[in-house]
Design goal:
Chain lengths: ~475, ~500
């Protein structure tokens, strides 16, 4: 386990967090959503937190697991009167056992202790490549953070496992199913990443969540939450010497695993010369989706993963396209007046990246027509070198932006952890330097290499019922 | 101009030790976290008066130096905002503020202005809300001179370029057609209209008929009348020398007169809201999750030393904690739920509980939430709940002063609002003194379960069958009718189909 410490004298608060290098990208169909569910369950306590009598709870949970196993088996069978009756009976007995456990538990104790001691915003997020747990802790109570975080890594207990699925479903309804473009974007991502572990959302697939069992989640925890896969970061007003002592005492208790960490499906180094790892489709793929949303086109290209030298060039490329003086705004919004908004996004994740543009249409313009205008921009980028001044402008923006990203303690802690999860925290220093070295020729080469119309996925969203 | 890469801006005190290899140091690890002992937290509110300066034209400037990063933040506020606009001029203050940034300046057409800002890597924005307008600058300290020059000219002499105004108006018109796409936006709109009435500045929205008057001449006149040095407050933070930045600001605003007319009255005169009719109102949407707001009008600020205010803050925290524990923790009905009680200046605040839950659970969730609101009136909060709420407010307090930008910003806001700086050093003591009796008293005084307005956006058939399964009659949830709200045309926000009554029984 590594610790990154950044001292920032100021208010007596420390932004503290840790990241574990596992996320939905480690899953397979059948267990999608397990990383995210596990993240929720990490707030349900440990052998010491959240319980009145851990032993008696253990007995009840073992019985819950037996019933749930049988339920999962039955769910896979064709409906029949006998099966349905047994399932109803099992469900009733399971709920009874969960209710029986309740008086033995201290619900939400972890969050309660943090709140009571003045910690702010203690939460966690699951991404495709990593899961991060963080919050802001009063400086004088840093030892509490060490106590609680090391404790939940030492002996987590996944209480109320069979209820948490409904909270996750609620989260899905909010994030994916009740927003204007949520479902359409999910379908587009699934098509773009077909055959790749980024194809499913971090929330998981509903059918997989319904059959997940506690024992699987415990095994998942043991396999992935190991100290050699975890980095912590603290940013704020603290004494580094004291922190080092606390870190060794508390997190030194985590056992070093014997076996090496689970391998990546495609390590970033393999991408240096190879194309994007997703199954590269032949010819363009085009999807049309209806949603109650702004008519728009989205164009997605596969690009290399985190750390690949072309990722810096792709960041500059996004800079050339974005902003008030970017090419997309100047050409599509101001010049041709056919777009309401247009912007590019570059995302370099561990198992591959994507470069995408979102083109929102204006007036009577059909969203497909925007793709043709985008193609013209790509063509120009391929043929003509970007001027020195335009390039310098983007570099100046990226450099100041990199400083801005260091100013807020919590944001800095999260950036450090994200960079660690994907590769190395030093990337935060390397990024502006590498960006400043990008040349006009680099941009032309990268556009030719990665923005290949034959390998892209285009989503056209039209107005209508989704 | 070129930037140099500042190496070592990020000085990580690297500890990449394989911790497990090191023998655990001699730190006693107690069996329970309660056994940990903490040193006292010492946090003193910075001295505002020491940070305050005044330019020769009377503009107050708060400066907080911080040389951690080569960046400077400047925030300017002026007393302009939607509250000034009469109903027939809806959108004027916001549109003016937006075009201050987008329409170029007296000496630079918009293309040249934008190009210069972007080349500096600077970030300049402008915006307005109900009770304030203003602009922000974030620039590297080595480009402060150029960045500030652009920023000041933009504030003093925006061009309101006709071409850019036309594009912005077009885009605004375009965006009107999307206003009913997002269920959360629909929820907020209907809730606001039921509480305040459609013409209240807090909820008022632009219609096509308002767009015609958003001309360069109109914007110029409005800007001249309300963006003026005699109502301006400035906050500066970051990599500056105080004397240097004050001299620059002095030059920048020199010879800029305030108009002869008086500035807008402040604080805004109490903007009357209608009398909301209690009831359960719903908008039909085919979504799996109902989005719900319930509540009523909140408080009106009478002064900065109102003894009810700390008790209301504690009450609101306690309610938020309860709802989360009950609805998410115990019942697993929601992913998020929160509670807000506003005591506002001028504009009457509101009390609201916001939550999202599967349609079938909506009635149950509403029932539980209202029961918790009632319980705050009927019994005093428990000791632990009170402690939790007070502690959360007290311990979260230093976050207001977490960064130099927040310190300068909070004090500048004091001056803008008319809030004394002395409000802060005594804040935690006021919260500490709140008792369970006071919480119950303010709950009885300010929470009105009988006046509850509930708005739901969701699939009513599923909501109704879920209610039936839980043996809850929707009409028994609140006093007043259960009504379906009609669909609105997104562009005009008029009710769709002429002759439809504004609300019909299901």
């Amino acid at each position: 386990m590594r610790f990154l410490l950044v001292r920032r004298p100021g208010a007596p608060l420390v932004a503290a967090g840790w990241v574990v290098r596992t996320g939905s990208g480690d899953e397979q169909p059948g267990v999608t959503g397990i990383s995210h569910l596990l993240e929720h369950l990490m707030f349900h306590g440990s052998q010491k937190i959240g319980t009145r009598t851990p032993d008696r709870e253990g007995v009840l949970m073992a019985r819950q697991d037996e019933l749930a196993d049988r339920l999962v088996t039955l769910r896979g069978q064709p409906p029949s009167a006998g099966r349905d009756a047994e399932m109803a009976d099992l469900q009733r007995r399971l709920e009874k056992l969960i209710a029986d456990q309740r008086p033995l538990m201290v619900r939400g104790e972890l969050s309660r202790i943090y709140r009571d001691e003045g910690a702010v915003g203690v939460q966690a997020l699951t991404y495709r490549d990593y899961t991060v747990y963080y919050g802001q802790i009063p400086t004088n109570k840093l030892s509490l953070w060490f106590w609680l975080e090391s404790d939940r890594l030492l002996s987590p207990v996944f209480r109320e496992f069979y209820l948490e699925g409904s909270v996750v479903e609620e989260e899905r309804r909010q994030r994916l199913e009740s927003t204007p473009t949520g479902k359409a974007v999910e379908k587009l991502a699934a098509a773009f990443w077909e055959g790749h572990p980024y194809a499913w959302p971090t929330l998981g697939r509903t059918e997989d969540l319904a059959v997940l069992r506690r024992s699987q989640t415990e095994a998942w925890f043991l396999e992935h939450y190991r100290p050699d896969q975890i980095t912590a970061a603290l940013v704020g007003d603290f004494d580094p010497e004291q922190v080092k002592v606390l870190a060794r005492a508390y997190f030194g208790r985590l056992r070093r695993p014997g076996a090496p960490p689970p391998g990546l499906i495609s390590p970033p180094s393999a991408l240096t010369s190879a194309p994007a790892p997703a199954a590269v489709p032949t010819g363009e793929r085009r999807l049309t989706e209806s949603c109650e949303c702004t008519p728009q086109s989205r164009v997605l290209y596969h690009t290399p993963g985190f750390g690949h030298p072309d990722t810096y060039v792709l960041d500059v490329l996004a800079g050339v396209l974005n902003g008030r003086t970017g090419r997309l705004f100047r050409s599509l919004v101001l010049g041709q007046g056919i777009a309401f908004a247009a912007y590019a996004e570059h995302d370099a994740a561990r198992r591959g990246g994507s470069f995408s543009v979102v083109l929102e249409s204006k007036g009577e313009t059909m969203p497909e027509a925007l793709v043709a205008s985008w193609d013209a921009e790509v063509d120009r980028l391929r043929r003509e070198p970007v001027s020195e001044r335009e390039l310098q402008k983007v570099k100046n923006q990226i450099l100041t932006e990199s400083w801005r990203g260091l100013s807020d303690p919590l944001a800095l802690a999260l950036r450090l952890l994200a960079a660690e999860a994907l590769g190395d925290w030093r990337e935060l220093d390397r990024w502006p330097e590498a960006t400043l070295a990008v040349t006009p020729a680099d941009l032309q080469r990268v556009v030719s290499t990665w923005l290949d119309p034959q390998k892209r996925t285009v989503g056209v969203f039209v107005r209508g019922r989704g | 101009m070129r930037f140099r890469c500042v190496l070592g801006v990020l000085a990580v005190l690297g500890v990449h030790s394989p911790l497990a290899a090191a023998p655990p140091a001699a730190v006693p690890i107690p069996d329970r976290p309660e056994q940990l002992r903490f040193a006292d937290l010492t946090f003193e509110v910075p001295n505002a008066d020491g940070l305050r300066h005044v330019l020769s034209n009377g503009v107050p400037v708060y400066v907080v130096e911080d040389h951690t990063l080569p960046l400077v933040d400047i925030v300017v506020a002026v007393r302009s905002g939607d509250w000034i606009d009469p109903p027939e001029r809806a959108g004027r203050a916001s549109f003016t503020a937006a075009l201050v940034r987008r329409g170029g300046t007296a000496s630079r057409p918009p293309d040249a202005f934008d190009e210069q800002v972007d080349f500096l890597g600077a970030d300049i924005e402008s915006l307005a809300n109900v009770t304030r307008s203003g602009a922000t600058l974030n620039v590297s300290s080595q480009s402060l001179g150029e960045g500030l020059g652009l920023f000041c000219e933009m504030i003093r002499a925006p061009r309101f370029d006709a071409g850019r105004v036309a594009v912005a108006r077009d885009n605004l018109r375009e965006s009107l057609g999307r206003r009913t796409d997002n269920p959360l936006e629909v929820l907020g709109r209907e809730w606001g209209r039921l509480l305040y009435g459609a013409d209240h500045p807090r909820v008022r929205e632009v219609s096509p008929r308002h767009l015609e008057s958003l001309t360069p001449a109109e914007l110029t006149a409005f800007h001249r009348a309300t963006w003026r040095p005699d109502t301006m407050v400035v906050a500066v933070s970051g990599d500056v020398a105080t004397a240097d930045v004050l001299a620059r600001l002095e030059t920048c605003f020199a010879g800029w007169p305030s108009p002869s007319g008086p500035p807008p009255a402040w604080p805004p005169q109490a903007l009357a809201a209608g009398t909301p009719r209690p009831g359960l109102y719903y908008v039909e949407r085919d979504i799996p999750q109902a989005k719900i707001i319930l509540g009523h009008l909140g408080g009106q600020r009478r002064g900065w030393d109102d003894p009810d205010e700390p008790a209301l803050e504690v009450m609101n925290r306690a309610l938020g904690g309860r709802l989360l524990r009950k609805l998410r923790g115990e019942l697993g009905l929601v992913y998020r739920v929160d509670s807000t009680f506003e005591v506002d200046l001028g504009v009457l605040g509101l009390f609201q509980v916001f939550l999202e839950t599967e349609n079938a659970s909506a009635a149950r969730a509403i029932q539980v939430a209202i029961a918790e609101v009632r319980r705050l009136r009927e019994e005093p909060v428990s000791g632990p709940e009170l402690d939790f709420a007070r502690k959360a407010l007290i311990d979260g307090f230093p976050l207001l002063f977490d960064t130099p930008a927040e310190i300068a910003g909070t004090f500048a806001e004091d001056e803008y609002l008319g809030r004394p700086h002395a409000y802060w050093p005594t804040y935690r003591d006021r919260i500490r003194r709140v008792t369970p009796e006071q919480v119950q008293r303010v709950a009885q005084r300010y929470l009105q379960p009988d006046k509850m307005v509930v708005v739901v956006v969701g699939k009513w058939a599923d909501i109704a069958s879920g209610a039936a399964a839980a043996r809850i009659k929707p009409e028994s949830l609140v006093r007043g009718p259960v009504m379906r709200l009609p669909e609105r045309d997104p562009v005009t926000l008029e009710v769709r189909g002429s002759g439809t009554p504004p609300a019909t029984k299901p």
